[in-house]
Structure formats: C-alpha cells, structure tokens
Amino acid sequence: MADNHLNREFDASAPNQKWVGDITYLWTASGWMYLAVVLDLFSRKVVGWQLSATPDTALILAALNQAVILRQVTASTGLLFHSDQGCQYTSHAYQDRLTELGIKASMSRRANCWDNAVMERFFRSLKVEAISREHYQTADELTWAVKKYIHFYNTKRLHSVIGAKTPNQFEQLFLKQA
C-alpha cells in the first residue's frame, strides 16, 4: 500500500503530473457493469477508461494502459497516480505495472473519499448528467452512453476550476503558451 502523496493537492501545473483513478458501478438490465476511469488533474480530462462486467485488476490495468498510450507516458515523465485502497489498486500486478512505467503510487487514507474528491465528482457528474436518466438494456448500450458522455465531458463541458473551459481547450491553451 502506498502513502497519500497527493494529500488533496488537486492542482497540477502541467499535463501528466498527477492522475487520479477509481472504479464505479453502473446498472444495466443485463446486470452490473464496472467503469474504471483515469483523470489528469491538470485539465480534469478523462485520459483513460474501460468498462467490464467484473471489477478486477484487468479492468483498471486496461484503463491505465489506455491513458499511458494516449498520453505517451514514459518512465521519465515523473507522474503521480492516486487511487483508493481497493484490492485492484493494491494488487501486485497493478503496483508492478506502475513501477514498470516509473509512476509513483499514491493512495487515499482508508475510508476517506475526500482524498480522491475530483474522481468522485466526475462519477457524480456522469451519473447525474447522463447515466441515471436512462435505463440501459445491454452492456453495449451503456458503453455507447459512457463513450458519448466522456466525449462531451472532454470537449464541451465547461469546468470552473480551469477557467470555464473544457479540458481539451485548457490543454490546447497550455500547449500554445509552452
């Protein structure tokens, strides 16, 4: 188990400095589905996500690997990844993957959702703004809805913490200034 290196410092001065991740559950008529998401704290952008019928380590590894590929993270990036202490995040396979990538692990204190508040807020937004309004029959329907919401979230939804911009706009402005 890792220490809480993030320590509720939810701001980052550049992309790929601090990521947060977690899993939530979503209902379909076919049963529960589990969504793992990785957010970049710099822009609040969703940089990785995966849905699965099982909330296992393979699910979070798939979300992490998607984010690593998208963001071209290397061992020299100096990235901090924060999560809760769920068994998926404390697993040897996951911790070994973080080490292999040169990513420093950080974990919330036990039973303290405020330590990962940005991630919890994303899940609330997803459920209130998109998912809870509908009744999904299949995993495919839910996957489409999640994909549509994440696209909206990254490209159209304004965030007050980043100056009433979308995550994509905020990152583009940063890159122009860099």
Give me the secondary-structure topology.
Layout: E1 18-28, E2 31-40, E3 45-52, H1 57-71, E4 80-83, H2 87-90, H3 92-101, E5 104-107, H4 117-129, H5 139-155, H6 167-177
Parallel strand pairs: 1-4, 4-5
Antiparallel strand pairs: 1-2, 2-3
Overview of the molecule:
There is one protein chain. The chain has helices at 57-71, 87-90, 92-101, 117-129, 139-155, 167-177, and strands spanning 18-28, 31-40, 45-52, 80-83, 104-107. By secondary structure, the protein is of the alpha/beta class. Strands 3-2-1-4-5 form a 5-stranded mixed beta sheet, with helices on both faces. The longest helix is centred in the last third of the chain and has 17 residues, at 139-155. It is globular, with a radius of gyration of 16 Å. The mean pLDDT is 93.
Gyration radius, rounded? 16 Å
Q: Indicate the overall shape.
A: globular
| SSE succession | EEEHEHHEHHH
Assess the beta-strand content as a share of residues: 15-25%
Number of continuous helical runs: 6
Q: How far apart are the first and last residues' alpha carbons, in Å?
A: 36 Å
Low-confidence stretches: none
